[in-house]
Write a structure and sequence with these properties.
The complex is a heterodimer.
Chain A lengths: L10 H65 L9 H11 L3 E7 L5 E4 L10 H7 L3 H4 L25 E10 L4 E11 H8 L9 E6 L4 E6 L2 E4 L15 E10 L2 E10 L4 E8 H70 L9 H17 L4 E8 L2 H8 L1 H18 L5 E6 L2 E6 L5 H16 L2 E3 L2 E3 L3 E8 L6 H17 L5 E3 L10 H15 L3 E10 L4 E13 L3 E3 L1 H11 L2 H22 L5 E5 L2 H4 L4 H11 L7 E6 L6 H12 L3 E7 L16 E4 L1 H5 L9 H12 L3 E4 L5 H10 L3 E2 L8 E2 L3 H14 L1
Parallel strand pairs in A: 16-17, 19-21, 21-22, 22-23, 23-24, 24-25, 25-26
Antiparallel strand pairs in A: 1-2, 1-4, 3-4, 5-6, 5-10, 6-7, 8-9, 9-10, 11-13, 11-16, 12-13, 14-15, 18-19, 18-26, 18-27, 19-20
Helix pairs in contact in A: 1-6, 8-9, 11-13, 12-13, 14-16, 16-17
Chain B lengths: L1 H10 L2 H6 L11 E5 L5 H7 L1 H11 L3 E3 L5 H9 L5 E3 L2 H10 L4 E8 L10 E2 L1 E6 L14 E4 L5 H15 L3 H4 L2 E4 L3 H9 L5 E5 H9 L8 E6 L3 E2 L2 E4 L5 H12 L3 H9 L2 E6 L6 H7 L1
Parallel strand pairs in B: 1-2, 1-3, 7-8, 7-9
Antiparallel strand pairs in B: 3-12, 4-12, 4-13, 5-11, 6-9, 6-10
Classes of the chains: A alpha+beta, B alpha/beta.
Chain lengths: 776, 288
């Protein structure tokens, strides 16, 4: 499971979180500042309202006192009290909603007359004595007398509601401050309370009427007249001014009140308006509560958005990482697939070793590394002996198993950097690396041969097999892998020549059983090629029907500067061992082509030349192209060039491919030495040959009798059935010729008809042979 | 004058004339009428307008209705003889008689029985709290703020101060944390409904009136205490009003007539029944 460690907060996250935090701080900062401001504003606004209310109520009360003054003035200032005066007063009072009762007192405060004698105060001397001195300042105006007597006993009367407000009106002579009588007018509190009940002061708010000493006469709220509420202990709020206002904050019963008062010192009363701050701030608190909720929601939204954004970002990052990881996995998988398919392309599926292509690549690099390290490398070319016959006799299944077993044994012997490959068929190639000596290499090769020669257990079958190993050493035997392979291949052939289970070095000096002459020849090969020391001799082939020469087999000779003319049986094996057979074979074909061209120019009637091709050469992949290039180069007609191959050559896949390729190019093919090998005629069906050359050993067995060589006869019959031309080699007697002609053989070749001759002798031979035939 | 008399003779049923044919001789120039405040005064004046019409037509003189400011103002008016006929509460009646024993109760409204009020001319003083409040018993109201009506109200002040105080065995001012004289029963109920007070002493007939008008339902209030039945508010004459006139007014108010019916409907009453001082003696006893 892919896990990414938590990273510190990224810049992007900060960029998202920071504005959010700032926004939240701003919202709450604004809330707090605005809260304080609006609280202060609300209190100030209510203070102004309540001051106005106090002023209005005080004005209203003052007007009532003015009315009381007016009522008093009706009574007049005389001492006489008319008989009908009480009735008149009673009538007035009954209809007056404000005043219920009225009393008239002499200057000393003794009752003279009362509208309601039963409930009238008999003596108000206490009040009049108190007010008398103030008349000079305040004038003859109605005054609210003090609630409690001057000697200061605040009675328990507060338990009962005061239901009347008394106003004392001096009547007399203002000029000399002499009071003639006092008139006490009593105001119905119900009337005042009724007025105040529509004043909205909210819960806990109330209005007070206080006397000059600050004692409460009346307290009312919107419910009515309040008795027994919290007491306010304020000093006198009177001032010198006619009307004065003030405000303060009180704490009553643990609650804060805003308190505003309006005082009228002349009339001796103060109106107080008290309102709990809680009530004033109530609506604000509600809106503040609402604002709080809105702020909380905004905060939650912002925080939620941030959290959401951060989460989305993280998820995206994770998704991106996951997608990257997925891509990485995909790439790895594709790389794996690629490696597998490359491996499949690079590995020989049967043996599990590299195939030729991959070997060339890997070994090339390895060789380069070896050379950089100045180490000696060895390339071993291994061919299994008798593999073809094992395959044929025991089946492909066993053949494949054998190849696998061989590959396994090779693999087990390899060093860490050694490279091995199967080149197809039963050919294996190994590049030995590391810092090895020649002796070490030889020991290794010896061990290899020994290992591969041990008994194989295949599907319960015991099998004996051995390898032929050719060894080329870098840098001596070749600079490149190609050169080394070529050299090792040649060396392998020389090992095969030496018998089964042998190994041979390409460098003959390393081979212990070297032949001195071979060695010299071998050494001279390169020069021979270069100096064009190889020459061709031509042996005629005669059509038995017409007895005319149809073509010549070319036979290579080495015009050695030292040894003179050397025959192929001397140098071909060496050439094959050393690999020089390949360039030499090509040289022979080139010479044949050139000769055909020359004879065409000289108008010598030679139609066809047959050239022997070494199996080694035929196993070369490039062989066909090389031949076709030569044919084209010399502008030969199709069929002019004929290649003679041996039976062993056609056992190789590459050789077969070459044969088809050559056949396609119009080059005729003949199978040489037929009858000596192990291949039967049926086996030839797949081989694209045109001719069959019956080996001279078979021809030599032909005597006079027809029955002497049933093999030859049946071979000819079968070959004819397969539409193959039959050539008899080594015809040395007229009897053989007759016999072959009778048996249906097409062409004959041999000393009896003509020995191999240099090119220069051919025109004359033709002339003589034809003249001889015509004469015969 | 003669013509008016003739018309009156024709109009006024014979038994009335038989009862007292001298009432018009002591007829004042106008009749002054007032009543204790029970509710919004404008509304209350409108309700009593049919009575003014009944009396004005029956007596042939203008009837003046004085707007009262409190119970006390009504009593003062009666005592000072500025008012001829008034509606008082039982306690206010007793108070007024203490000051002037010539004041005479002569009639009382009989009301339909209600959820809170017994049938007939009786009502109760109720101690109400809002049903959703936590108060279950009267004792739970210790320290609460209570609404009273007027110092002179029977059910809204006198009964609480006496009968209820006896019931809880301590004076109101000690028991309650705050007292508010709301001025009228309706004001007291409004204060209770607005949660400006915790409890209120109210006349059962006013609560029924609220119920009738749909301002409350039966579950709005919880009754924590109620008084014995009280005789309904008396109509009273001031002292010194001539007996013939008293009889004539009594007749007008107790004898069925169209105007009287209109008045009864206006005040949601079923009848006007004659009363005498003895009917208010229980209240008088409470006040001693």
């Amino acid at each position: 499971m892919y896990h990414k460690p938590d990273r510190p907060v990224s810049a992007v996250q900060i960029a998202m979180v920071l504005p959010g935090v700032l926004m939240i701080l701003f919202v709450w900062g604004f809330f707090l500042v605005q809260g304080d401001n609006s609280r202060e504003e609300a209190l100030q606004a209510r203070l102004a309202e309540n001051r106005n209310l106090a002023l209005i109520v005080s004005e209203s009360l003052k007007q009532m006192t003015d009315r009381a003054g007016a009522v008093a003035s009706l009574i007049g200032d005389g001492n006489e009290t008319g008989a009908d005066e009480p009735d008149r007063l009673l009538g007035l009072l009954a209809e007056d909603p404000v005043f219920n009762r009225l009393g008239i007192y002499d200057p000393n405060g003794r009752l003279v007359y009362a509208t309601h004698p039963a409930s009238a105060r008999p003596d108000i001397g206490d009040w009049t004595r108190n007010l008398q001195p103030k008349l000079a300042d305040s004038g003859f105006v109605p005054v609210l007398p003090p609630r409690y007597p001057a000697n200061g006993e605040t009675t328990s009367a507060s338990a009962e509601p005061v239901w009347r407000l008394s106003f004392l009106i001096p009547v007399g002579f203002p000029a000399n401050d002499r009071v003639a009588r006092w008139i006490l007018v009593e105001l119905d509190v119900g009337y005042v309370a009724g007025l105040l009940q529509h004043v909205a002061l909210g819960t806990g708010g109330f209005i007070q009427v206080l006397d000059a000493n600050g004692d409460e006469w009346l307290r009312a709220d919107s419910s009515g007249v309040v008795v027994g509420g919290p007491r306010i202990n304020g000093a006198s709020m009177m001032s010198d001014q006619r009307v004065s206002t003030g405000s303060t904050t009180l704490t009553l019963d643990g609650e804060s009140y805003q308190y505003v008062h309006a005082s009228r010192s002349n009339h001796g009363f103060t109106i107080g308006v008290a309102q709990p701050q809680k009530t004033i701030l109530g609506p604000l608190e509600r809106s503040r509560g609402w604002q709080l909720m809105v702020n909380s929601i905004i905060t939650l939204l912002i925080a939620g958005s941030i959290v959401w954004l951060v989460r989305v970002l993280k998820q995206q990052q994770l998704a991106l990482q996951a997608s990257e990881q997925e891509n990485q996995n995909l790439i790895e998988r594709l790389a794996g697939e690629h490696a597998r398919s490359s491996r499949a392309a690079a590995i020989d599926h049967l043996s599990g070793l590299y195939n030729r292509r991959q070997f060339l690549e890997v070994a090339g690099e390895t060789l380069a590394a070896q050379r950089r390290a100045r180490h000696m490398s060895a390339l071993l070319f291994i061919d299994l002996d008798r593999f073809k016959s094992i395959n044929d006799s025991l089946g492909h299944h066993v053949g494949d198993q054998l190849l696998q077993a061989v590959a396994g044994r090779i693999q087990r012997m390899l060093g860490e950097r050694d490279v091995a490959a199967r080149f197809g068929g039963d050919e294996f190639v190994i590049l030995l690396t590391g810092n090895r000596s020649e002796a070490g290499i030889e020991q290794w090769a010896s061990d290899l041969v020994q290992h591969l020669s041990s008994v194989y257990q295949l599907d319960g079958t015991e099998l004996n097999n051995s390898p032929s190993v050719g060894i080329a050493i870098s840098p001596r035997d070749g600079q490149s892998i190609d050169e080394l392979i070529r050299s090792a291949d040649a060396a392998m052939y020389s090992a095969k020549e030496a018998g089964r289970g042998q190994y041979r070095f390409f460098d003959q000096s390393l081979n212990l059983n070297k032949d001195v002459e071979e060695f010299h020849l071998e050494q001279a090969f390169a020069a021979a090629l270069k100096n064009r020391e190889f020459v061709l001799h031509y042996q005629p082939q005669v059509c038995l029907n017409t007895m005319r020469v149809t073509g010549y087999e070319t036979l290579v000779r080495w015009q050695h500067p030292e040894f003179g003319l050397v025959y192929p049986d001397r140098f071909i094996p060496v050439a094959e061992k050393t690999g020089f057979v390949i360039p030499m074979g090509l040289e022979v074909i080139r010479l044949a082509c050139a000769q055909l061209v020359q004879w065409r120019l000289d108008q010598v009637p030679v139609k066809t030349l047959a050239v022997n091709v070494s199996p080694i050469q035929l196993g070369r992949s490039e062989f066909c192209e090389q031949v076709r290039a030569l044919v084209d180069e010399h502008c030969l007609e199709p069929g002019q060039l004929e290649l003679e191959i041996t039976e062993t050559a056609i056992l190789n896949d590459q050789a077969m491919a070459n044969l088809h390729c050559l056949k396609e190019a119009g080059i005729r093919l003949s199978l040489d030495d037929f009858g000596t090998g192990y291949s039967g005629l049926a086996h030839l069906e797949a081989v694209p040959v045109d001719k069959l050359k019956i080996d001279r050993s078979l021809i030599a067995s032909i005597c006079n009798s027809h029955d002497d060589s049933p093999v030859v006869s049946s071979t000819i019959i079968l070959a004819k059935r397969m539409k193959l031309q039959v050539v008899a080699e080594g015809v040395e007697t007229p009897e053989q010729l007759v016999h072959l002609k009778v048996a249906g053989c097409d062409v004959a070749q041999g000393y009896h008809l003509g020995r191999p001759m240099p090119a220069g002798d051919v025109p004359e031979f033709i002339r003589n042979f034809h003249r001889l035939q015509e004469s015969a | 004058m003669l013509r008016a008399l003739l018309i009156l003779i024709l109009v006024v049923p014979a038994p009335l004339l038989w009862a007292d044919n001298r009432w018009d001789e002591c007829l004042p120039g106008k009749l002054v009428f007032t009543m204790i405040p029970k509710k919004d005064m404008d509304e209350q004046l409108v309700e009593y307008r049919p009575l003014v019409a009944l009396l004005g037509e029956g007596l042939g003189i203008p009837v003046e209705m004085v707007r009262p400011s409190s119970y006390d103002s009504v009593v003062d008016g009666l005592v000072s003889r500025a008012v001829d006929v008034a509606v008082l509460g039982p306690a206010a009646y007793i108070m007024a008689r203490e000051r002037d024993d010539g004041i005479q109760a002569f009639a009382s409204l009989a009301v339909r029985p209600g959820h809170y009020t017994p049938a007939g001319s009786f009502y109760r003083s109720l101690l109400l709290v809002r049903a959703e409040r936590e108060f279950r018993r009267a004792a739970d109201l210790r320290g609460a703020r209570v609404a009273l009506t007027d110092p002179a109200s029977t059910s809204g002040s006198l009964i609480p101060k006496t009968a209820f105080a006896d019931a809880i065995n301590r004076p109101l001012e000690v028991f309650f944390g705050g007292r508010v004289y709301a001025g009228s029963h309706d004001n007291a109920m409004d204060a209770l409904l607005a949660d400006r007070v915790d409890a209120a002493f109210v006349s059962s007939s006013r609560v029924d009136e609220y119920l009738r008008r749909g301002l409350i339902d039966k579950d709005t209030f919880r009754v924590l205490w109620n008084s014995e039945p009280l005789h309904y508010d008396p109509f009273v004459f001031r002292s010194g009003l001539c007996p013939a006139l008293r009889q004539r007014i009594s007749q007008l108010m107790t004898q069925p007539s169209e105007r009287r019916q209109a008045f009864l409907e206006s005040v949601h009453a079923t009848d006007i029944t004659p009363v005498e001082h003895a009917d208010y003696r229980p209240v008088e006893n409470l006040m001693k």
